[in-house]
Specification:
Layout (H helix, E strand, L loop, with lengths): L16 E5 H15 L15 H9 L4 E4 L2 H7 L6 E4 L6 H13 L4 E6 L2 H7 L7 E6 L13 H11 L4 E6 L10 H26 L4 E4 L14 E3 L23 E11 L4 E4 L16 E3 L6 E5 L4 E4 L10 E6 L2 H4 L6 E4 L5 E5 L8
Parallel strand pairs: 1-15, 2-3, 3-4, 4-5, 5-6, 6-7, 7-8
Antiparallel strand pairs: 1-9, 9-10, 9-14, 10-13, 11-14, 12-13, 15-16
Helix pairs in contact: 6-7
Length: 363
C-alpha cells in the first residue's frame, strides 16, 4: 500500500498508531555492525527506543553496552542484564544520586557508569558503592553539557585527589553536527572534536597515568570516527531512524518507526486535508514542516498542527477523506514516548506483536 512499507488489514488498526517494522530494525542493526565491524565498539543510546523489547534484540545481536539519559531508562533496561549501562546525563541532585545507588545495588550483574563535567556532579556520586566508574563529559562544541578542554585538568586534579571513583575515560557527544547535510562540513567538525579528545587523552595519560576509554559521536557523526580503532561509537537514532536523519545519504539505515494516520477532513478551496496526526501523535520538537513526511507524498507539507489535528498542504498530491497516510517522524526519539506501545509489523505486513517503550515515563 505504501512504498517499502507493507501493512495488511489496515482497516483493523485504529489511528493514529505507532508502527515499528521489524525487518527494518534488523536491517539497521545489521547495517551498523557491517559499517563498524567490531560489535564491541558500538555503544548505542537507548533514549530512542526506551524499550526492553528492542534492547533484547540488540543484545541478541551482540551489542551489549548501552547509554541512557534518564534514571528510569537505566533502571528499566537493567532488567535485560546488559553488560554495561552508562548514564550519559549529569546527576544534579541528591535524590537522583540515591536512586542511582539503589539501582547499582539492585542489579549487580550489570556494570554502571555515569558522566561528570564539574566538581558538583562528582561530589553527588563519589560515594556510590560499586559504581563502575565515571567518564569525563567533554564539550566539543555543542555547548549544552560537558566541560571545555582547557578546564579538564582542574577537574581531573579534584577527582583524582578525592580517590573515590575510577575514571573510565572520556565521553563526548558532538551534537552540533545535527542537520549538517554536507559531509565535508561534518568531517571538519569531527576533526576538531577529535583534536580536543586526543588532547584530553594525552593529559590523562601523561599527567594522571590514566588510559582512557573514549566514547564519542551521535547519529550525524559516529561513522567519521570509525577509522580511529580505539574509539567506541555512540549513535542513538539509527535504530529507528527518521525523516531528518535520512538526509545523510551516506548511511544505509531505514526508517523503521512511523505513524499511521487518516484523512479526517478536507478544505478543497485551500487545497488542504486534515489528518489525525496532531502534535500529540508525532515528534513535535522540529519546526512544523519538519515534524513529519508522508510516505509516497513528497510534495505534501505539514503547515499547521494542533493537539489532535495536522493540516497538510497537498501541493498537487492526491488525498481524499478516509485515506490512510503513513508519516515518517522528523525526530524518532521524541516520537517514542508519545505512545504506550507500538504495533510490530513483520516482513509480510502482519501485526506480529507489540514493542513497548517501558522507560517512557520519567520516574
Amino acid at each position: 500500500m505504501f512504498t517499502n512499507y507493507k501493512i495488511k488489514n489496515i482497516e483493523s488498526i485504529e489511528t493514529p498508531e505507532h508502527l515499528i517494522f521489524e525487518d527494518k530494525v534488523i536491517n539497521n542493526i545489521n547495517s551498523i555492525i557491517s559499517l563498524v565491524g567490531d560489535k564491541k565498539r558500538i555503544v548505542p543510546h537507548a533514549k530512542t527506543h526506551k524499550s526492553k523489547d528492542t534492547l533484547k534484540i540488540l543484545i541478541d545481536h551482540g551489542i551489549t553496552r548501552h547509554k541512557t539519559s534518564t534514571i528510569k531508562e537505566l533502571e528499566t533496561l537493567a532488567e535485560c542484564k546488559p553488560e554495561e549501562l552508562i548514564l550519559a546525563y549529569p546527576i544534579a541532585s541528591k535524590i537522583k544520586a540515591k536512586r542511582l545507588e539503589k539501582i547499582v545495588k539492585k542489579f549487580p550483574q550489570t556494570k554502571f557508569s555515569t558522566i561528570v563535567s564539574n566538581n558538583f556532579h562528582f561530589d553527588l556520586i563519589k560515594d556510590i558503592s560499586n559504581l563502575n566508574g565515571i567518564y569525563i563529559d567533554l564539550d566539543t562544541g555543542m555547548n549544552r553539557t560537558g566541560i571545555l578542554e582547557e578546564k579538564v585538568d582542574e577537574l581531573l586534579e579534584y577527582v583524582v585527589s578525592e580517590k573515590k571513583q575510577k575514571i573510565n575515560g572520556i565521553h563526548a557527544y558532538d551534537g552540533q553536527t545535527y542537520g549538517v547535510t554536507s559531509i565535508e562540513d561534518r568531517v571538519i567538525d569531527t576533526k576538531k572534536s577529535l583534536s580536543a579528545i586526543r588532547n584530553v587523552e594525552k593529559l590523562m595519560k601523561e599527567k594522571f597515568s590514566i588510559i582512557p576509554e573514549i566514547i564519542v559521536g551521535g547519529s550525524w557523526s559516529f561513522h567519521f570516527y570509525i577509522d580511529e580503532k580505539d574509539i567506541k561509537l555512540s549513535p542513538g537514532t539509527w535504530i529507528y531512524w527518521d525523516a531528518s536523519n535520512i538526509r545523510q545519504k551516506e548511511l544505509n539505515f531505514e526508517i523503521a518507526g512511523v505513524v499511521l494516520g487518516q484523512v479526517i477532513d478536507h478544505n478543497i478551496e485551500n487545497e488542504t486535508v486534515t489528518i489525525d496526526i496532531g502534535a500529540k501523535a508525532i515528534s513535535s520538537d522540529p519546526l512544523t514542516e519538519s515534524r513529519l513526511q508522508l510516505v509516497d507524498k513528497p510534495n505534501a507539507k505539514l503547515v499547521h498542527q494542533n493537539e489532535e489535528h495536522g493540516i497538510i498542504k497537498l501541493n498537487g498530491e492526491k488525498l481524499k477523506l478516509g485515506d490512510y497516510v503513513l508519516a515518517q517522524p522528523g525526530h524518532a526519539c521524541t516520537l517514542t514516548p508519545k505512545y504506550n506501545r507500538a504495533l510490530k509489523i513483520d516482513k509480510n505486513g502482519d501485526v506480529s506483536g507489540l514493542i513497548t517503550p517501558h522507560a517512557r515515563d520519567r520516574v
